[in-house]
Amino acid sequence: MTHSPRLPLLAGLPLAVGAGLAIPVQGRINGALGTRLDDGIAAAVVSFSTGLAVMILISLVLPRGRAGLARILPAVRSRAFPPVYVLAGGIGALFVFAQSFTVGILGVALFTVATVTGQTASGLLVDRLGIGPAGRKPVTAIRVIGCVLTIAAVAWAVSPRFTGTSGAESDGGPAALLVPLLLPVAAGFLMSFQQAMNGTATVHYGTPIAATLVNFIAGTVVLWSAYAVKVSVAGPGNPLPAEWWYYIGGPMGCVFIGLGALLVRSLGVLVTGLGMIAGQLLGSLALDVVLPAPGTVVAPATVLGTVLTLAAIILATLPWPRGALRR
Fold first, then answer.
1. Chain-centroid distance, C-alpha 26
2. Which percentage of the chain shows pLDDT scores above 90?
3. Domain range holding 89?
4. Is residue 220 part of a domain?
5. CA angle, 250 as apex, 19 and 307 as ends, to 5°?
6. Are the C-beta atoms of 231 and 281 separated by less than 8 Å?
7. pLDDT tens profile 73-121
8. Residue 167 forms part of a structural domain
């Protein structure tokens, strides 16, 4: 195990926000690729495969990457951490599955709220259980209030997109959305565990490069297996496009997975997740303003909800004194 200095909150939180900025850009690219291929699973396979190629290259070229490679098998063989942690990338694959199969039913707005709800709730749980490398963190009233405000703020920020985004509403009403909602909630809930597992592995590998590589290997295996089943049943989709930008979604995934694995040791799982949620909203807002997609809505609620999200995260992360709520 190697010990690297922990980042202070003022340095780590902006990095978490920066990592979150890549998520909506990746989602926009992967969504466009899925439409072009007429196959969401194929788009996910391309994204993970290109990300894996980038991580292999980085691991072989950089000295720190090669050192991390040399530590992977010894760490796994010595059971320095539970062996199941090497399968953390499967959670990323589940998230992509949820994105591919439910966004068309729920719409982006409900999907975002569902995943944020699951991730925020599990962030509290993972920190309380001490699964991540930062150890146990107490569930204080301030942190709970900050989490509730974060979920409410995200719901407010995406509320302008609720109208007319879901075809299920006209078919079966809210009850028809229940089952599709469970998948993104579950995917979001497991994301905190993924960050904790990757963060713990990073401590033993000595670098987030190795943890990110293992993450992409596991996710790629899961997605290629799913794609093989899909092709055998329904056949392949459209041929791959020639435009280069369709293939940068995977490398962007390397950024936020790697930074997430690095930051959970310093910030804890909850704060890392909240910071990435803030970055996700800021990135989405910037995309909607600069490169709006069809059906994009930028309303006052979008901006104000994003600002409230940032305020909620500050509330949850500041070192409040004990008994602050009783004053």
1. 11
2. 32
3. 9-322
4. yes
5. 30
6. no
7. 999 999 999 999 999 999 988 887 777 677 666 666 667 778 888 888 8
8. yes
Domain count along the chain:
1
CA distance to 161, 168, 293, per residue, from 164 (Å): 8, 10, 16
| Closest C-alpha among 270, 224, 223, 251 to residue 90 | 223
Residue 304 inside a domain? The answer is: yes
Pair of tokens at residue 121: 């709730």
The two three-digit tokens of residue 226, written as one number: 């799913």
Q: Is 298 left (phi over 0), alpha (psi -120 to 50) or beta?
A: beta
* Total Cβ atoms within 10 A of residue 304: 13
pLDDT tens-place string over residues 133-167: 877 887 788 888 888 888 888 888 777 766 544 44
Q: Confirm if 26 and 252 have CB atoms less than 8 A apart.
A: yes
Look at 5-19, 156-170, 202-216, 303-317 and tell me which has the smallest mean pLDDT: 156-170
The answer to whether residue 4 sits within a structural domain is: no
Tokens of 51: 């990300």
Contact 317, 9 (CB under 8 A): yes
Q: Would you state the pLDDT for residue 226?
A: 92
Q: Which two tokens stand for residue 5?
A: 């200095």
Among candidates 16, 96, 3, 11, which has minimal Cα distance to 273? 16
